[in-house]
Amino acid sequence: SKSKRCIWLYMVLMLLTAARLVLAWCTPVGVDLSPSSTFDDSLLIKLGMSINSGNWLGQYDKLTLAKNPGYPIFLAFCAKTGIRYQLALCLLLVLACMAFSIALRPLIKNRFARATLYVVLLYMPLCFTTAWFRRIYRDGLVIPFSIAAFAGFLGLYLRRKERTEKLVPWAFIASLSFACLQIIKENGAWILPFSAVCCIVMFIGWLWNLKQKKTSAVSVAVRSMLLIAPFLCGFLITQAIGRVNASYYGAPLLSERFSGSFARVSSDMAQIGERCDHTALWISRKALNDAFRSSPTLRQCKPEIEDSWKTWSLLFDNKDVYGDMAYWALRDGVYASKQFRNAADAEKYWSSVANEIETGFNDGTLQKQNGLHVSSVSPVVQSDSFGNWIGLTFWTSGKLATLSHMNGRLIGSTRENIGIPKGYSGEMSCVRKFLGNNAVPYDCSSDGSVIHKAANRVDHILGKLGVLLFRISLIASVPLFLWLLVSRTSLPDKTQKIELALIVMGLILSSLAFEAATCWYIQYQLGIFTVDSYLLEVYKYSPEFYVCLILATGVVISAALSSILKLCNKTNSKCHQQSRKNEQDLKL
After folding, report:
1. Strand partners, 368
2. Which of 71, 276, 300, 403 has the largest count of CB atoms under 10 Å?
3. Are 308 and 333 in contact (CB under 8 A)?
4. In the prediction, which pLDDT does 449 show?
5. What confidence tens digit (pLDDT) does each residue in 350-369 have?
6. Which of 335, 333, 262, 248 is nearest to 59 (CA)?
7. Directed axis angle between helix 70-81 and helix 41-52, to 10°?
8. Whose CA is closest to 445, among 426, 464, 423, 419?
9. How far apart are CA 86 and CA 41, in angstroms?
10. 3-state secondary structure of 67
11. What's the pTM?
C-alpha cells in the first residue's frame, strides 16, 4: 500500500541520514597552525578560542577585525556545546537539504523524487573534500547556509499564492540563513541578486492581485513584511556585531577590511595613477608613492610600510605586491608603527588618509581611474576589459564544472594523505581541547586510529562516487531540462514549466555572477603564477558556485524523475484498467 511505501521510504532516509552523521563524527578535522595560515586558519581558530573564553575577539591588533566573526562564533558554539565541528556542520547540512527538498514540494509532487534530491544533496561531493569539510576554515560553513537560503526564498516563491501563515516558516529560514551568510564571509552579498529578484516578482504579483481585488491591502502589507524580513535580519545582525565591536574596540565595524575607513583607503588607492595591468597589479608601487606624496598622515608610517612592501614582494617578483596582498602589506606596515591602541584610533588614522587622497583626486594632484566597481576594495573594470572578463568567467566556470580539482582533493586521496601526528604539544594541544580529540595537524590525514583511517576511506569512496554522479547528472540535465519544458506530458501545467525555468536559470545565473566576481578578485594569479595555480585558487574560493550548480542540476533531475514516475503510474493504471476490461469481456 501507499502508506507502507512511505514508511519504508522514511526509514531508509533516516538510516542514510544517521550514516552520514556518524561518518561526519568519525572524520578527522585538519588544523593548520603554520605561519602561512596566520591570516586564515590559525586566525579564525584564535578568534574562536577567544570568544569561547568570554573575551570576544581578544586584544586588539592588526588582525582582530580583519575578517567577519561569523565563523569564529560557530567554532565557539561547537566548543561550548561539545558538538564536534564536522558533526555540527553535517547537522546544518541535514537541515538545509531537508528544507530545500520540502521547499520544492509545490513544483515536484512526487515524494520519492524529493527524497532522492535530499539524499543527493546530503551526500554531495563538496562535503567530502579537504578544503570544505576536513579543514577548519569558513568556506565550508557557507555550503549549508547557502542551501538553506535558496530553500527559504524558493519556499516563499512557490507558495506565494497560498495562505500567509504558510509563508512564515520559509521567511524564517530565509532570514536566518541570509543573516548568517553576511557575517561568515565578506562576500555575503552574492546571493542578493537571486533573493531580490525573487522577492520583487512576488511583490509585483501581490500588487496585481490587489489591483484585481483578489486580495486585501492588509494581506499584501503582511506578506511584504515577510519579504523584507531576510534583508532586515541581515542588516540588524551586522549592526549588532558592530555594536559589540564598538564596545570592545571603539569602532562599530563588522570588519575593518571591507567596511569603515580602511575600505575607503583600499578603494582610493586602487584608483590612483594611470591605467596599468589590473589583472595583476591592484596597487602599483607608483600608486603607493603617489599616495605618500598626497597624504601626510600616510607618510608618518612610510618606513614601516616600505619594509612591509619589500617583505610581501618577496612572494612575487621582489618588485611589486600583487592582487589584494597589497592591502595586507599596507596594513602590516601601518600597524607595525604601533600608533593604535584600539579600532577607534585606527579609524581616525585611515579616515585622515582617505580624506587626503580624495582631496588629491579633487584638486587634480592625483590622477583617478574611472570604471565599474565590482567591489569597493578592488580595482575598477575598464570598458574594454569586459570581453576578457566575461570570457575568463565562462572559461573558469567550465573548468570548475569538470570537477577535476575537486576529484583530486577528496578526503583520503593520495595527494592529501600525508601521515599521522607524532604527538600533541603546545598550541596544538590547546586547539584539541577546544575543537575535540578528532583534531589533527593539517599535514596529517588522521591520528592513526582505525576509526579515522576507515572514515577517510569511506569519505574518499563516497566522494569519488559523488563526483562521478555529478558529472553524469550535469550532462544529463541539459536534455532532461529541454524535455521538461517542451514535452506536453512531462509538466502539463504551463505555470510549472515557467517556475522550473525561472528557478534553474536563476541558480545558474547566480553561479555565473558569483564566479565572475571571484575571477575578477583573484585573476592576478593568472598573471603571476600558472594556470593550474589560478584554477586551484578559484576552486578554493568557489563552494557557492558549486552549490548553485548542484542545486540547479538536482532540481532538473528530481523534476524529471517525478515526471517519469508520474507517466509510469499513468501507464500502469491504464494497463490495469485494460486488463480488468479484458477480464470482464471474457466473462461476458
Report:
1. 272
2. 71
3. yes
4. 87
5. 999 999 999 998 888 888 87
6. 248
7. 50
8. 419
9. 16
10. coil
11. 0.93
